[in-house]
Amino acid sequence: MSRQSNRTTDSKKMNSELFTLTYGALVTQLCKDYENDEEVNKQLDKMGYNIGVRLIEDFLARSTIGRCQDFRETADVIAKVAFKMYLGITPSVTNWSPAGDEFSLILENNPLADFVELPDNHNTLIYSNLLCGVLRGALEMVQMAVDVKFAQDTLRGDNVTEIRMKFIKRIEENLPAGEE
Amino acid sequence: MEARFTKGKSAILERPLSRPKTEVSVSAFALLFSEVVQYCQGRVYSVTELQARLAELGKRVGASLLDVLVLREKNGKRETKVLNILLFIKVSVWRALFGKEADKLEQANDDDKTYYIIEKEPLVNTFISVPKETSSLNCAAFIGGIVEAILTHSGFPAKVTVHWHKGTTLMIKFDDAVIARDKTLEGR
Questions:
Q1: Quick one: which of A58, A70, B44, B94 is 20 to 30 A from B14 by CA?
Q2: Which long-range contacts (CB under 8 A, 24 or more apart) does B172-179 make?
Q3: Residue A52: left if φ>0, alpha if ψ -120 to 50, beta else—which one?
Q4: Structural domain spans, chain A
Q5: Mean pLDDT of the region A159-174
Q6: Which of B3, B8, B31 comes nearest A155 by C-beta?
Q7: C-alpha to C-alpha distance for B94 and B105, rounded to whole angstroms
Q8: Which run of H or of E encompasses A20?
Q9: Which Pfam families does the entry mention (chain B) (predicted)?
Q10: pLDDT tens, A32-87?
């Protein structure tokens, strides 16, 4: 058991600034390469999705988290374990819908957006949209279809940064045709 | 004052530039960097172009990093001599970015404009397996870009290229004017 608990702290840490600035350089490049913010948002989401699909394996291997029983547990694991492990922050989980299929992550400080101010001509850019893709991709790999989007963003003048997550459905494992 | 400097509630200009308390995991960076490389790869036709694109991104990082490091590590004092700026990169810049000093700093025997920073296993290459057909590719071009921006913006225009040699070697070629100026500074 003691060995298992060690494994959670196993992952190496690094200065968040190189990460932040590299992300910033990427977003700047995308803004140059694409014509409008909408396209950049899409591209960021797509790249995030690719990351999420790979990140989930890393996460499951490093943490000792098993299968989550319900969406509430999923929310807790994302906020308290995954965000802590990868970005060094712990967002709070709030605003549960009565049905328990929607919640919000409130980010106190978003490491992707440190030192960032959006210029006026990019006011529809969802700067940290990569995160939505990451969450979507990672959860898809554990058979959860989830809708993820930024509901509020301090970069766009809101008081807090809020990611809204909505559970859509459990993905059934489809066997390829002809195999029963 | 222009509106864009006061817009929003983040007031980033008011924030202290002290060392950040947050750390991110190396995996997070590795996965992000991998996407960056793949994105760049999708838009180029050759290894040279890919490296140039990565260097371009690195330059942006270096340019934003320089001021903050000079302020933190050097009390706002800039370097004026070639050797000192190189040591600043080897020690301070490397520590801030990668948590360690660069492995080696050398000067070319036959050329007083050329220096080498040697890094056996650069962080950005740790997770990258280079396919055989593009074996010259070195993603440390990104770090090369960071170094080039730091040198250039400090008043030492230089060209930085990456090579596979003793691990990864960044070859720094200073402009003639830089070396000439350094010689006149000598002995003062």
A1: B94
A2: B172/B86, B172/B114, B172/B115, B172/B116, B172/B117, B172/B147, B173/B113, B173/B114, B174/B82, B174/B113, B174/B114, B174/B115, B175/B113, B176/B113, B178/B82, B178/B113, B179/B82, B179/B112, B179/B113
A3: alpha
A4: 16-170
A5: 91
A6: B8
A7: 12
A8: helix A16-33
A9: TRAPP
A10: 999 899 999 999 999 999 999 999 999 999 888 888 889 999 999 999 999 999 99
- Of residues B179 and B14, the one with the higher pLDDT is B179
ipTM: 0.88
Topology adopted by domain A16-170 = Muramoyl-pentapeptide Carboxypeptidase; domain 2 (3.30.1380)
- pTM higher than 0.90: no
Q: Taking a contact as any Cβ pair under 8 Å apart, which residues of chain A between 149 and 168 contact chain B?
A: 154-157, 159
CA distances from A114 to A21, A119, A149, B166 (A): 9, 15, 20, 36
Range of the domain at B160: 26-187
Contact with chain A for residue B128, Cβ under 8 A: no
A22 touches chain B (CB under 8 A): yes
Q: How far apart are CA B101 and CA B169, in angstroms?
A: 14
pLDDT band at A172 (very low <50, low <70, confident <90, very high): confident
Structural domain contains residue B152: yes
CA distances from B100 to A14, B97, B156, B183 (A): 11, 8, 24, 31
